């Protein structure tokens, strides 16, 4: 880390006050942890943050013995070289300190061990510097990096305790393997916790083991992190959070660990390790996590999650259902892209038969986040070692981080009381022997695996932390928005009325905007919210349709032709294809027959007024159907508008449904009133007396009559004058004959012209009244179905009905609690993250 260089320079200046200015130069090694994927004949893993300090004397560059390399790292057991030890070579050979003889006041380099723990063998191999297994104390550099690691890991642990993993995946190390793979013994070696014998046969929950390096005395804490399901049950959650165990690490052995496992199982409500299989528990596995935290100066910074081991053969203690549950639990952990998978393999078994590696391969096909660990190498049959060595050399199953081999305590050794420290020594001695000694030492044994995992997890957490912060900030924003959409809590009548009043006011405002065509948002042309546009178009269509389809028989022009003026004849032809044709179809014939059949006591040549009224009623009998069709279309448009606007304004689905039900009767009444208003308009126009004071009627009738006279005069035959010019003779008798009609014909034409003139006025009046009185007033007006949701309506609700509509149901209340809980978690995580600078 570059920011350590000035610190280290100041340290050297303090230790070597009289040293030349060129006593030390710094360079970053080229090796990288991410460049290594083999433990045989490949470069060992090497953290990118490591610095190499070259101590150079005034001697010549050829004098190799005058140079020494000082390695600074938080993983002191990782060397520079890729040289494997020779078979049987002693790792613990005597070592000597190197110091600079030409610098006054210099001290032996061995005294610099706190800075990097430099040791040089009497038999140095070219390019190799040996490292001790553990630094003697905390140096300034190690303390800085240790503090940073501690803060990072503690923050991630805090995230996990907050259950932020419900919403955001967290970086973690998860160890998976078969029940017989030696997984628990491996964890023993890594954590130096003595696990109960065969504990993974009965573990029915995940265990998170947290190691923290502190200068305080060694102690152990056990607690339970509630899972997702438990977090929804406040009583159970409180019970789980109340599980707390604390004891000195010296008192933490297999018996106390087993008791903690038993007590945790009881607290989670699942069978204890002694479960016989004869009972039928409510649940057999738990999503809760048992957290075991060990702190002390001898521990590295490391967090590992242990999940129950896979098994293949069912028994009365472990059923097929259990096997599937465990497999699903493992799958849940390893499919998370932020999980580093520690896949454990029994060296005696064929790799092809290891289900855990098949599962890891499915979620991590490139092997970038899988670390292979081979256990029970000491139990491999003679002659089979080469196959295991091939796997360990990363030549069979290629993993980005390669493979490690370990030797754990056997069951017999546990019974014989072999300690964890003795276990480490036996492991060293075993791997010095052939053929295991050919493997790269950097991937052999717990003492190499532990710092590797610590550094791997640290780098992983450090790389992911900025992304985590971004995701947490996004989670806070999204949760706040979701809570805002739910609105304030609605437990009292006052809160409920305020809630519905806010909705009603917003709804009324948006209705006004839509009717005024002042939309504040961009919507598609077909959106129901463009109600004004849709209704204007429908009104014009109604006007066209009623002109074309309103009359039962077509009026005639002066020449006796059907008068299609003012409407689309094609529309009428289409309409008449679907209805029965009136008989007779010719309007003159129909008027003549009606005239004959309705004569009363009136004198010859006079028309019975009642006959004209009846003929108008029949001629306008289509108005009602055409108008009802138009009103029906507008009602549908209003209904769709209401549905769309309700969805936008009333976000709570249950409240929306209940409001619609509450308003449904009133809505139906207002629509019924609109149809009644339409029926009244039809009756006013066609069922009462024919009445108008519009000058258009008299003017049109007079004009039509004059045109008829002129048309008949135009039929007089032209005669030649004496000078040969065409002229009309003023034959009075011919004129009289031309303009004179029989009483029946005169009555027929008069009735036709009266009907036609009045029909035109009445139709325009009816069309306007339908639009103004039915559509605008009854459907779109203040009392119409489009404006029923208003503050006055809310004010008039009784408390019982108010509560029925606005009271939060259990789903909304649950959603609110969940969102509040998520927001609290996210904000707490946000606060914790703000204390870290990466």
From TrEMBL:
Residues 28-103 are annotated as: Disordered. InterPro entries: Dynamin, Dynamin_GTPase, Dynamin_N, Dynamin_stalk, G_DYNAMIN_dom, GED_dom, P-loop_NTPase. Residues 167-466 form the Dynamin-type G domain. GO terms for biological process: endocytosis; intracellular distribution of mitochondria; mitochondrial fission; peroxisome fission. Residues 748-838 form the GED domain. PANTHER family: DYNAMIN, DYNAMIN RELATED PROTEIN 1, ISOFORM A. This is Uncharacterized protein. It comes from Orbilia ellipsospora. The lineage of its organism: Eukaryota, Fungi, Dikarya, Ascomycota, Pezizomycotina.
């Amino acid at each position: 880390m570059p920011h350590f260089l000035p610190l280290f320079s100041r340290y050297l200046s303090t230790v070597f006050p009289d040293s030349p200015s060129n006593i030390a130069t710094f360079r970053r090694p080229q090796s990288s942890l991410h460049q290594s994927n083999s433990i045989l004949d490949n470069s060992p893993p090497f953290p990118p943050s490591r610095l190499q300090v070259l101590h150079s004397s005034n001697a010549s560059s050829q004098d190799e013995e005058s140079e020494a390399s000082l390695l600074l790292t938080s993983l002191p057991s990782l060397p520079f070289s890729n040289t494997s030890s020779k078979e049987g070579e002693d790792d613990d050979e005597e070592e000597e300190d190197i110091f600079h003889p030409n610098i006054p006041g210099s001290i032996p380099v061995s005294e610099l061990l706190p800075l990097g723990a430099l040791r040089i063998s009497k038999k140095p191999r070219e390019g190799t510097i040996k490292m001790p297994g553990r630094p003697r104390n905390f140096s300034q550099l190690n303390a800085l990096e240790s503090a940073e690691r501690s803060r990072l890991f503690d923050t991630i642990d805090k995230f996990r305790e907050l259950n932020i993993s419900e919403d955001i995946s967290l970086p973690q190390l998860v160890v998976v393997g078969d029940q017989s793979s030696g997984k628990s013994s491996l964890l023993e070696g890594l954590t130096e916790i003595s696990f109960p014998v065969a504990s993974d046969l009965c573990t029915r929950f995940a265990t998170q083991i947290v190691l923290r390096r502190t200068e305080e005395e060694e102690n152990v804490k056990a607690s339970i992190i509630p899972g997702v399901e438990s977090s929804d049950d406040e009583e159970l959650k409180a019970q789980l959070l109340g599980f707390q165990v604390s004891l000195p690490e010296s008192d933490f052995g297999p018996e106390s660990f087993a008791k903690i496992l038993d007590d945790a199982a009881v607290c989670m409500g699942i069978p204890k390790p002694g479960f016989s299989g004869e009972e039928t528990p409510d649940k057999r596995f738990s999503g809760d996590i048992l957290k075991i935290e060990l702190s002390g100066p001898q521990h590295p910074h490391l967090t590992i999650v242990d999940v129950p081991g896979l098994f293949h053969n069912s028994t009365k203690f472990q059923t097929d259902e259990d096997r599937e549950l465990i497999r699903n639990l493992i799958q849940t952990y390893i499919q998370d892209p932020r999980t580093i998978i520690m896949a454990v393999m029994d060296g005696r078994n064929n790799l092809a038969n290891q289900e855990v590696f098949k599962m890891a391969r499915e979620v991590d096909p490139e092997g970038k986040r899988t670390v292979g660990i081979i256990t029970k190498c000491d139990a491999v049959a003679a002659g089979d070692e080469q196959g295991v060595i091939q796997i360990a050399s990363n030549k069979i199953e290629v993993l980005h981080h390669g493979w490690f081999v370990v030797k754990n305590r056997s069951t017999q050794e546990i019974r014989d009381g072999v300690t964890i420290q003795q276990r480490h020594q036996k492991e060293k001695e075993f791997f010095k022997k052939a053929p295991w000694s050919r493997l790269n030492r950097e991937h052999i044994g717990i003492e190499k695996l532990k710092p590797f995992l610590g550094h791997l997890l640290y780098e992983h957490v450090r790389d992911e932390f900025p992304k985590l912060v971004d995701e947490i900030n996004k989670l806070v924003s999204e949760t706040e928005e979701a809570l805002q959409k739910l609105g304030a809590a609605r437990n009292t009548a006052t809160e409920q009325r305020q809630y519905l009043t806010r909705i009603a006011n917003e709804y009324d405002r948006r209705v006004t905007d839509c009717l005024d065509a002042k939309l504040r948002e961009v919507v598609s042309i077909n959106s129901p919210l463009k109600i004004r546009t849709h209704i204007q178009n429908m009104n014009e269509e109604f006007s066209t349709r009623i002109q074309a389809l309103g009359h039962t028989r077509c009026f005639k022009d002066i020449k006796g032709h059907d008068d299609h003026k003012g409407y689309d004849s094609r529309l009428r032809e289409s309409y008449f294809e679907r209805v029965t044709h009136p008989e007779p179809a010719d309007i003159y014939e129909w008027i003549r027959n009606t005239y004959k059949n309705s004569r009363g006591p009136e004198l010859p040549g006079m028309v019975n007024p009642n006959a004209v009224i009846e003929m108008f009623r029949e001629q306008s009998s289509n108005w009602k159907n055409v108008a009802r069709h138009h009103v029906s279309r507008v009602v549908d448009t209003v209904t769709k508008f209401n549905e769309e606007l309700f969805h936008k304004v009333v976000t709570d689905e249950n409240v929306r449904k209940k409001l619609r039900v509450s308003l449904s009767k009133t809505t139906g009444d207002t629509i019924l009133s609109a149809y009644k208003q339409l029926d009244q308009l039809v009756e006013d126009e066609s069922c009462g007396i024919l009445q108008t004071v519009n000058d258009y009627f008299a003017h049109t009738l007079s004009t039509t009559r004059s045109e008829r006279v002129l048309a008949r005069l135009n039929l007089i035959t032209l005669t030649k004058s004496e000078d040969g010019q065409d002229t009309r003779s003023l034959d009075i008798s011919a004129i009289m004959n031309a303009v004179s009609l029989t009483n029946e014909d005169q009555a027929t034409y008069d009735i036709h012209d009266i009907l036609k003139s009045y029909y035109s006025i009445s139709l325009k009046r009816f069309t306007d009244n339908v639009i103004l009185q039915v559509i605008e007033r009854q459907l779109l007006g203040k009392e119409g179905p489009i404006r029923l949701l208003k503050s006055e309506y809310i004010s008039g609700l009784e408390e019982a009905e108010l509560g029925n509509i606005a009271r939060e149901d259990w789903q909304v209340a649950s959603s609110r609690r969940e969102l509040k809980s998520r927001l609290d978690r996210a904000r707490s995580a946000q606060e914790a993250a703000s204390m870290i600078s990466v």
